[in-house]
Amino acid sequence: MASVKMRKTAAGKPQRRARSGGAARPPIYPETIAEALPGKARVAEAKVRLVKAGVKYVLSCWVDILGLPKTKPVPIEKFEALCAGKGPQFAVHSVSMVPELGPADPDQIPIPDLDSLVICPWDPTCAWVFADLYWQNAPYNVCPRLALKRQVKAAAEAGYRGMAGIEPEFIVMRFEEDGRAVKAFDNDPRAPGRLPLRRQAWGYDVEASIDSMAFLGDLIDILNQLGWEIHDVVCEGAYSQFELDFGYTDVVGMADRLTFLRVLLKEIAKRHGIFATFMPKPAKGDWRSGAHINFSLQPIDHPSRNLFEGKDGGWSQEVYHALGGLLRHGGALTAITCSTVNSYKGLIGQVPGFEGGVYTWAPTHMTYGPNNRSAMLRLPQNRFCIENRATDMCMNAYLALAVTQAAAIKGVQERLDAGPPLERDLYHMTPEELDTAGIQRLPRNLFDAIEIFDNDEVVEQALGPVMRDSYSRYKHDEWDRYNVEITDWERAEYLRFY
């Protein structure tokens, strides 16, 4: 998210890398506050740039366990103090449902990572920088961003560098005068008391694209200004649903992008009197909003080489071992990448009353195939990466990429077997055929996923026991709260039937 220059990968696709921006760059995973502090020359250079651009305030943002950024705005005059670890401190544990520390414990200290410094596109008087949390002079063990950085260090020590792209999808809505939330872009509104017209898929529609261009044009311009190499914006299958396709980068940079993007989309939408929702499936007829992770590895000593591309221009053997690692730990990973009760309403192959058809194109089983979109993992036909389709916009991208990278590298190191690829449509396979092929279904709900998560060794290694237990307790509570609610469906189904 910092200022960038371009270089080419072996596959010819541009990749973003931050400029050095002055001296004294911190190590990959600083073990102390002193190691984490940016050099004075780098801080001075950054402040000059911000002041020249008219920045008056700085949002130094840490990320909580659910993936949401938190901050205390500071005036630009306090920028040096902020970068020296003498800015705001936080009682992070005071806003946690499952605090691992108490009211008598010291606060956490955020240390800005100047690689992520950017002027806010929605308000050029504000700058944004991601920060890592330290506690008692050590990395805070419930800081998701540092958990991912720790995995980056472990990967480098093993000889690898993880790269990722994410395909965010979201639905844009607006509020009616009576407070009802309706689709923001829908040229076929349903009048009260009238029968709805037959609705078809909204995806790729030209008229829908034209009608949305005021909003989409703002979005494209801003992402281009950020240097994200925006390829296109897609009208997806649900009414008022969009997908963004932009360039990939290293795993920390991509987690930063997704976290920043969720805030950016909300701010751009406000300009147009609408709002963006990242809820995976707001209504039964909607296509789910995913956030597919495209992951690959580079050898640390040959950063222009994609480890998943073979010498003959096909897939390398390493990609199948990485698939083996991801499949072995796929259930636990899904507890992070599909992190809400609502997420699992979208991991179903067929939905009656679905807008634009019956088939969802959502993954349903933990297997892989060449371009097979009904499987959890896909080997795309136009890029050398593993696409995880069992993901959505509510995930904590730092935790998701930490476990993704750890599982993939374990697969490569241990030469795990992914088994044969599946080239059949999973929606039409019988239970007997699935059993014969040894194909396991994705978790059916959040509880099933968290039960797997709780007992997965890669999760504990990647996140650490304290963060793993905190995340687990959050999600068990979410499931318990959901289970005691009585839904409209239950009332309609049972109230007068029995």
Largest sheet: 11 strands, mixed
Q: Total strand count, please?
A: 20
Shape: globular
Mean of residue pLDDT values: 92
The CATH class of the largest domain turns out to be: Alpha Beta
The CATH topology of the largest domain comes to: Creatine Kinase, Chain A, domain 2
* Helical run tally: 15
Q: What CATH architecture of the largest domain do you see?
A: 2-Layer Sandwich
* Proportion of strand residues: 15-25%
| Ends distance | 58 Å
Low-confidence runs (pLDDT<50, min 5 residues)? 2-22
**Whole-number count of domains:** 2
Question: Which structural class best describes the helix and strand composition?
Answer: alpha+beta
**What is the helical fraction, as a range of percent?**
25-40%
**CATH 4th-level superfamily of the largest domain:** Glutamine synthetase/guanido kinase, catalytic domain
**What is the radius of gyration computed over CA atoms, rounded to a whole number of angstroms?**
23 Å
